[in-house]
Amino acid sequence: MEFNPIQIVPELYQLLLIVALFCQSLGDGSDTPPAERWLPYFAGFGIFVNIVSWGAEGLLFGGAYKLDMLSQFFKLAIAAGFYVAVLNAARQPSLQERKRPDYFMFLGISAWGLMILSSAVELITIYIALEISSYSLYAVIPLRDNADGKGSRGAAEAAIKYILFGAVATAIALYGFSYILASQNTSYLSQLAQRSWTWDGQPMAVVGLSLFMGGMFYKLALFPFHFWCPDVYQGASNETAGFVATLPKLGAVVVLVRLAVLLKPGLEITTLLAILGGLSMTFGNLCALAQKDLKRMLGFSSVAHAGYIMVGLVSGTAMGLSAAAFYAMAYVAMNLLCFWVISRVASDGRNLQLDDLNGLYKRSPGLAFALGVGAFALVGLPPTMGFMGKFFLITSAWDHGYNWLVITLVLNSAIAIYYYLSLVRHAYTHEAGENAPVPDNSAFSVCGAGILAAVVLLFGMVPGGLFEYAVLAGKQLMP
Amino acid sequence: MDFGYPVITSLIVFPLLAAAGLFLIKSPQVARAYTLGASILELFIGLPLLSFQFNADFQFVEKAHWVPQWGLEYALGIDGISYLMVLLTLAILPLCVLCSWTYISKRVKEFHFCLLFMTSACVGVFSSLDLVLFYVFWEAMLIPMYLMIAVWGGDQRRYASLKFFLYTLAGSTLLLAAIVAFRITGGTFSIPELMHTNFSFNFQYWAFLAMALAFAIKVPMFPFHTWLPAAHVQAPSAGSVILAAVLLKMGTYGFLRFCLPLTPDASVYFAPLMIAMSVASILYGGAIALGQEDIKKLVAYSSVGHMGFVTLGIFLFNLRGVEGALFQMLNHGIITGALFMMIGAVYERSHSRAISSNMGLGKYLPAFMGFWGLFALASFGFPGTNGFVGEMLVFTGAFQKSYVVGALLVPGALLGAAYMFRVSLKMAWGRPSTAKTWRDLNSREWTYLIIPALFVFYIGLAPKLFFDVIDPSVEKLVNDLKARTTTQQVVAATPAPPAVAAVETPAEPVNN
Fold this sequence. Notes:
Chain A has 479 residues and is an all-alpha fold. Chain A is built from 20 helices and two strands. Helix content of chain A is 71%, strand content 1%. With 512 residues, chain B is mostly helical.
């Protein structure tokens, strides 16, 4: 197919933003407007760009890059998430003014890598896109200052952990790729989908694919690749954690959705995914029960949610894939909401403990309400997006051989309620102690929380429109 | 019938809109008056419900697509089983506002927000004809109830609210799995359609267990009742009233609406177990109530006993039993709701719920004790009150079923009289009296007590109207159950004819 730059306008636009930020980072920032002033408008325009290029379809760059419903669906979500993350980080207290262009540039590169990831349909392309999105995050995580202006040691530790873990995970993925290439003799997903993936037929390929998926599991923080997750969330600044916790999961899910086309229920590798999913949700929820640090708790909750997403992937149906895609959206929306509230409450950039939420309803009723919506959505209570996502997941997976996984999922919701509820409990029923953080009650903060909460509630009550696209995307992959 | 507006949807949406409107109000007193006004307006919106036809069909049906890709429908409608529950929910709301008028003094707006939200969810639960819609309302209702206990409750409110939430949510997670299983096996989420689908016994067995756990916790049946006393004691009085009058009924409503029609064979199979648990609830609840020193706890345990009568009536599978269960549901809502409002009223005077701090009221608060006596009599089923009708019917049903079950109920009824007499005698004539300086009921308290009192007599003396409402649906329920369980047995005895076999597999494949 003829290459037409119009088709990849969203990626080019994102690249343009990165270049602009790069140019600004070269100077000392005295003669240019601060990045956090102009960037939100342009990131917001990026959403519009993505909407315009919604219908793009085609196969580019020698068949390695595919534009379809799924990729455009996720690109739009990534652009929207990037916009929220930029807004969220615009008032970051723990980051010096002169570092901001660099900071935003790295966030932009990571989002750009994720956009490429959502279109990549060839294993090497996937691998490179994954690296682009990871490397920039390695640089972002240590950017956190303590109150005295010095760099935070915790953040540096988190960054080292993230790098080491990331390096090992990607090395494993590359190693797995070599097995796949050796046994199946191709790296294109469309061709791989026609090969055998049984243990009896192609043991080497099965091992290879499992290892390759390890790279995605690392991004997704699925058990047993989750160890970095709570530590990194805790060490990184609130705003950075908000980014790391949300957008990269979209990239991982989109690749897993594409890979899931290879997985028929009953295959050994599918069962492996199901087992990892079950372990991940149970382990994540049980660990989260004991946490006192808010971000750590959300870190373990991400581990659990990564397990939930597996439920849709193993069902081996188009509906399952669309349910997983929908759940990934719901997950990102819910977490952006929670991190937004956390970043606003900790206006001095500290790490919030559960006790810091005490009496939030009095200090900031709007943020407390939004936190409540976020917490109940993460539990999966109606009428929120979290409930609908979970409901789609279990409906798609029931009777496809993994009923035990569905039962594990619903039982896990019962475990999870305890710690999510403690967010609401502290915010609403405890009275504030001394040294409570002063939440940011500006219109910007409360409106942002309100809009995100409204999104979570709206798609919980009328999920039809968004889900329609997810279904179309799923059916395109698995007719 | 057309009233120019969708009646049930309006009943669900209006409280939500009214709740949103609360945020524009500043003064607590105005918020109270506003909510009272809204609750009365809600009753007016519900007036078309009075044109209910006395037959077994679903009425006031509304349908719209919700998520067509997944087969979700926005389907509402009520029949004889849900009709009275919807009316009860609507009627309880203004009483709750009145009984919290002075009881709730902090965060008044938010409290009334919860009350309105709650009403909306409760109406939704009783009128949903789609399993998922039902589940949405069923879960949504947990949030305001949790907040009511956790924010406006007593000293141990955090413990009680958490226990309430954990218990009920843990129970209902498996309900969600059952709902999904019904969709995949039966091909639809629509309750009326699923009622005509036959499922294999193995499927019914597991589906029944998953649903029964959720409903048994909600009722609550012994041994899942431990959350109830904690929640009742800690909740503010309006919270207790809603909890007793409406929330507990959702459990028994679930049994009637889902377990019996959707899994008839499993219901019959598990009936001995359910009957045993019901009898245990009656005896246990009564015996524990006898030993309580806290009035609210006493009434809470009495609820366990009374709800035992309801579940017993349901699983007798005869006309009288189910009629009795429905009557008992309504009566328990009225009587126990009123008792909790009275406890709230006396608590405002004594600031204690202990029996010993509320003694000797008869001389100083005659009107209060008069109402209390009336509701206490109704509570243990004194003839002429509504409690008698319900218990009498369940007794009749129980003796029709088996003399043993009937005989076991007698001590249960005696216990009811015993604990109610014990607390009432102490409150009326106990010494030393603590009530010398208290004032008797004021006009607001008269208002919210006289309404349930009228119903106590009306249902007690002339229950015909209520029989007319519920009988067609109850007869249909019992007959369907009998017909479907007997055909199943015939089918089991003879080789399955192809027609039946065809029904057992969904006619059209579910595309997911």
